[in-house]
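All the exercises in this workshop are built on plain-text protein records. A record pairs a protein's sequence with a compact description of its fold. Read left to right, the backbone structure tokens trace the chain's path through space. Once this layout is familiar, the rest of the handout is easier to follow. Here is such a record, shown just as it appears in the course material:
>
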Amino acid sequence: MSLKIRLARGGAKKRPYYRIVVADSRSPRDGRYIEKVGTHNPMVAKDHAERVVLNEERIKHWLSVGAQPTDRVARFLAAADLVGERTFNEQPKKSQPSAKTLERIREKEEKAREAAEAAAAAAAEAAEAPAEEAAEA
């Protein structure tokens, strides 16, 4: 039996409230679960203490038994330092910028680099001018 730590939706229409549960991966989203290990209330402010409530001891137990958190729950657990943060490296080709956009980005970077070099050269010349005047005096 493969276990998942996932969200089970509750609450009224347009007022979601989620239980963080440990369930068999084959059971339905809002169906039977083994244990409730926390809650998530997206309707409160992000810095509110009751937005995500976790029973850390039980979550550690279920992780040690082999339960796999879903992506969203893994974010909550990473924020609570219970698991390492996941990295998502795969990007589909559709979402990558086009060749023209990449060319524009390169041109913009080159212009910014040239402007920075010109500003540095102007600053160096300005610093040399007072030094020469002081040497003449």
Remarks:
- The first strand starts at residue 3 and ends at 12.
- The two ends are 88 Å apart (CA to CA).
